Amino acid sequence: MKMTKAERRRRVAMTLVYSAIVLLVLLVTVAIVALVTMYLIKRGTLRMGDVELDTWGIILTMLLSSLVIGAGIAYVSTRFSMRPFTKAQITLDRLAAGDYSARLQFRGPYRHIPGMHDLAESINKTARELENTEMLRSDFINNFSHEFKTPIVSIAGFARLIKRGNLSPEKEKEYLDAIEEEATRLSRMATNVLSLSRVENRTILTDVRRYDLSEQLRTAMLMLEGKWTKKHIEPVLPAEEYYVEAEEKLCEQVWINLFENAIKFSPEYGTVEASIVQTPKETSVTVSNSGDPIPASKAARIFDRFYQGDESHATEGNGIGLAVVKKIVDLHGGNVQVSSHGGRVYFTVTLPAGHGTAAKGRR
């Protein structure tokens, strides 16, 4: 990550401070040895004009004195200067051990050393992120276990009823439809977990090619037909054909997750709309739905793993779909943003020209 000018200045200042400490140690050592030498000469222990003077002995004595004195001063100054780094190491060790409540704070003169505030802030920011992720992970495990268990119990219950027999054809079809719906729900949850695992371990795109983005959006919406027809939602999709260069299978997951999210939070008889804007530099796809606005506090975290905006868990979801969207878009070098205005919620995915060519055509 490229450093800003302010960060570069702070790091240079920190380097100069520690360089000054080293220089100070050298100067103090030289000064002490010089004073000791002058004292010995003044007392007559060392006689500069005496031919019997053991020159090599004096030199050796001065060297040993310099080493001893310099080592002592260096030890004391190093203990002082390394104290903040020792505190930082202790804090990092606590984080590594799973204590995400650990924070680094400098007191006394250390607070005024350039760079120390930045070091503490970076470590504390990391600790806060780890703490939030751990809390979300714990919530996810609890919620996911519950949501995973619910359809399994439903499937088992309906299967037992069908097995007993004595059901009318209508009831049997109703129970079979319920089993199919719950099985699809389980499949979707498992797919999202596996998708997140796969995309988090990827660093490059391997199958980038040019394809019809508009047709992909229509197909993704069609795959969710049962969900939007059940809520009487009207889908609005682009009529013109737009083409992009991207990894088709990955992008399909993006649109399915965004559409599913839009359908889930859209009221009955609402609308879910997808639009495409293309320029020579980028391709933007906006998926919007009618519904309540997303508060800024939730919008800032909505793409985090395991985060669910609906804290009551009244709606289906496990906090994975939008995290998958964010990771896939990042892999393509793009960005995804969320906004709310005019009674609608908007998710906008922007792909750069490298993976989203501004080529528009007809089928």
CATH superfamily of the largest domain: Histidine kinase-like ATPase, C-terminal domain
Please state the average pLDDT score. 78
Biggest sheet: strand arrangement: 2-4-5-7-6
Q: How many discrete domains?
A: 3
Distance between the termini: 42 Å
Please count the beta strands (DSSP E, at least 2 residues each). Answer: 8
Report the β-strand fraction as a percent range. Answer: 5-15%
What is the global morphology?
Answer: elongated
Kindly report the CATH topology of the largest domain.
Answer: Heat Shock Protein 90
CATH class of the largest domain: Alpha Beta
If you had to describe this structure to a student in words, what would you say it looks like?
Helix content is 58%, strand content 14%. The protein is of the alpha+beta class and 363 residues long. The chain folds into 3 domains: 5-114, no CATH class; 139-200, Signal transduction histidine kinase, dimerisation/phosphotransfer (DHp) domain (Helix Hairpins); 208-361, Histidine kinase-like ATPase, C-terminal domain (Heat Shock Protein 90, 2-Layer Sandwich). The chain has a 5-stranded mixed β-sheet with strand order 2-4-5-7-6, with helices on one face. β6 (335-341) and β7 form a beta hairpin. α2 (55-96) packs parallel to α3 (116-164) and α7 runs antiparallel to α9. It starts with a helix and ends with a strand. Mean pLDDT is 78; it is low at 356-363.
